[in-house]
Amino acid sequence: MLWVCGAVYLLVLAFLGWAIWRSRHQTGTAPQDHHMRAGLLTWALIITAGIGTLATASFLVDRALAAARQEDALIIRITAHQWWWRITYLDPASGAWIETANELHLPLGQTARLELAASDVIHSFWVPNLSGKLDVIPGRRNVLDITPQRVGWYRGQCAEFCGLQHALMGLDVRVAPAEEFAAWLATQAAPAAEPPDTVLARGRDLFTSGPCAACHTVRGTGAAGQAGPDLTHFGARRTLAASTLTNNRGNLQGWIVNPEALKPGTLMPATELTPEDADALARYLAWLR
Ligand code: CUA
Predict the structure, then answer these.
(1) Residue 1: its pLDDT value, please?
(2) I need a surface site. Which of 90, 224, 249, 276 has the fewest CB within 10 A?
(3) Has residue 29 got a pLDDT over 60?
(4) From the alpha carbon of 163, which atom of ligand 1 is closest?
(5) Per-residue pLDDT averaged across 105-133, rounded?
(6) CA distance 119 to 139
(7) Does residue 158 have its Cβ closer than 6 Å to ligand 1?
(8) What is the pTM of this model?
(9) Of 66, 208, 209, nearest to 217 (Cα)?
(10) Residues 213 and 143 reside in one and the same domain
(11) How far is the CA of 84 from the centre of ligand 1 (A)?
(12) How far, in Å, from the CA of 273 to the mean position of ligand 1?
């Protein structure tokens, strides 16, 4: 910005100087030329002062914002993928990283420091009712501090065109009172429970022995894939496929069996299942809360 604006500024001054030189050498010195020259000089001074003030203010505000960062902020790493969000919390209690996806939970009134990264292309993190947008760029970690002031659900959306399903790269954001958030985080930190009946156990076995486990993790089981969202507590999320559909068993079965029909271009392949197996798998995932 400095170099581009500097170049434009010098160019404008060069034209100004040239105009003054030309008026002096071509038409002689008419009385009104003095007025014109004074007017031009006045405008040049006004513009210089205006731009100088803006540049100084921007510099100082940026420094103040950086200095105002709270040391006890909750650290949350968000990685944008085509077309979903990996969300990892640094648990202040245990110091462990807790991974989830597509649903961001924030404690009310506490500053959360979002460290934004991208795995593939440029995305943009945007929750309009909480903060301005910030680009998410591969190879960089951009930092966004948010201090939510009102309890509720918020809608987030990728705001930089990132491929076929850019429009379906949504994000659910939950702002909750501190105790509720702490309880939620403790739940997320726990591994998945042991299925209590045979149908759920069948779903679990399908998940861990089938293709699901190659891409997804369910902590507490053998499934430890890293390519897709962590599903350890998937059943508690409001939506599936990055805010594409309401999270219920009907949508879930449809998504598992034919994701391409719901989100064309998605990197999740279809899974061939008998109706009974699809039902058991969906029941298991919905039960993971
Ligand atoms: Cu990610 Cu648009």
Answers:
(1) 61
(2) 276
(3) no
(4) 2
(5) 94
(6) 8
(7) yes
(8) 0.77
(9) 208
(10) no
(11) 8
(12) 31
* Domain stops at, among 44, 67, 90: 67
DSSP string, 23-74: HHHHS---HHHHHHHHHHHHHHHHHHHHHHHHHHHHHHHHHHHHHT--TTPE
Do 87 and 170 fall into the same domain?
yes
Between CA 224 and CA 164 the distance in angstroms is: 27
Give the pLDDT mean for 117-144.
Answer: 94
Return all residues near 212 (Cβ < 8 A) that are at least 6 apart: 206, 223, 225, 271, 281
CATH of the domain at 179: 2.60.40.420
- Burial degree of 246 (CB within 10 A; 0-12, 13-18, 19+): exposed
The range of the structural domain enclosing residue 221 comes to 198-287
**Any atom of ligand 1 within 6 Å of the Cβ of 116:** no
Expressed in angstroms and rounded, the spacing between residue 195 Cα and the centre of ligand 1 is: 36
Which residue from 206, 190, 208 is spatially nearest to 198, judged by alpha carbons?
206
Question: Same structural domain for residues 78 and 177?
Answer: yes
The verdict on the CB of residue 160 being under 6 Å from ligand 1 is yes
Of the residues 27, 48, 67, which one is the last residue of a structural domain? 67
Residue 254 C-alpha to ligand 1 middle, in angstroms? 23
Q: Is residue 162 lining ligand 1, measured as CB closer than 6 Å?
A: yes
Of the candidates 232, 192, 205, the one whose C-alpha atom is nearest the C-alpha of residue 216 is 232
Nearest to 65 by CA among 138, 157, 140, 132: 132
> What's the token pair of residue 13?
């001054």
